[in-house]
Amino acid sequence: MAAWWCGRVITLFLCVHLTVGQIPNVSIHAYKPKGFSVSIPDGQNIGLFAFHGNINRGINKNDVGTIAGEVLKAKNGMWIYEDPELELKVGDVIHYYVFVSINSKGYLKDNLSFTVTKLEDRSSVTGPIRPGTVLPEDCKPTRTKVRGGFACAGQTLFEDNFDMLDESVWQIEQYIPNTHPEYPFVSYQHLATDQTVTTAGGTLRITPKLQQDLPGFTNETILSGTLNLFSGCTSSADSCLIQVDGADILPPVASGRITSKTFAFTYGKVYVRAKLPQGDWLYPEILLEPFLHKYGSLHYSSGVIKIATARGNRQLYYGPNDYSNKVLYGGPIMDLACRETLLSTKLRRDGSAWGDDFHLYSLEWTPEHIVLMVDDEEWARVEPTASGLRGQFPASCRQLPQMLLRAGTSMAPFDDYFYLTLGVAAGSITEFPDGSVTVGDRIKPWRNSARKAMLNFWQDTNSWLPTWLLSRLEVDYVKVVAL
Description:
By secondary structure, this protein is mostly beta strands. 5% of the residues lie in helices and 37% in strands. It starts with a strand and ends with a strand. Residues 1-21 and 124-133 have low confidence and may be disordered. GO terms for molecular function: carbohydrate binding; hydrolase activity, hydrolyzing O-glycosyl compounds. Pfam families: CBM39 (PF15886), Glyco_hydro_16 (PF00722).
């Protein structure tokens, strides 16, 4: 057995060199003014196609190329990888190898090369320009970029009405978010039964559940057991298993989270029609998260955009300030210590809560601004200063990666590829102010800085669980449109 590095994951296959015909012919195109594509036609039982190449220098079969990508699903009869930003010139030689999984066996074809003899117009190339997408003849330029694809102005790039959950588009997460800056008191689980992520009636439903109510768990195991999510884990190894250690109990809530990691983009318009969850200490995750963490992985260094969220409590006050489900909040976050700097709020003044009904939550993300809207009404706007978005922060916000941000655009870190995330979380050490008071004059049962925060939250289960009658996030549709 041999392990071949294929883009983002290590795939373990029985690898053999090819006999003629086992991998279909590879087709490569170089476009003007920029762009590159490589493809093979679909064949029976192909499960993965990977490409690795170097420009004007050789490559060994174990190397990760400067041009590298993997494709997990064929579209329109083709396995195609594209890099729309790659600039090639006539005379360039791409040295490459390709890897294909057929019937769970890996086949490698190496010592290959392609010489750029001309730069093609994209419209002159037969076959799909982007998997599942044909660019119209009147395609107009846009500032929107799609990872591995192309976009036209006003084009719908991504859309899901959730008649079913397409797991070739959405990844159902399975891991323990023990390194997340918010430190929610949940694990995200891809369950075979009693599922946290389902669809029904054309609606996505993400429902939090008590871990102690799932098979193999009890009240006692929350305090003394192990949660092993290695089978199907979608994160690093240290987020796949947890054992109780004193006050560090098992996450008491099993919830759901899905991500569009096969689709990432820079700049565009996002539309999410959703009904937010209600229930004490719950909050939804309707996010854009960074694909590559270009500016770092700690303290939101590469940014997160909360498109819409609202705490699930029907009533929640800290002093005179309302933090209940009547208050929508969202916006970009790029520093943990100063996470509130760019966030905004919108209070419902008609007595209703955001989770009472479906609303259309939308985002307009451009090289000049980030705008949030609800039901087509703008409620938040963030624009960079002369020194960029970092200029919005006081000098005391020392976690910002200043040198990297200075090297980016004025919108850095929000100038790179981001993907969609939908989920439900509970508790956390950031979303609920210490000392806040909910229905019945009950004070929040944990302190954000306390080691026993999760334990104290769980010990108050009998108080908050009866409020979880409408605890699921429901999503009617998601759509992303190019600028």
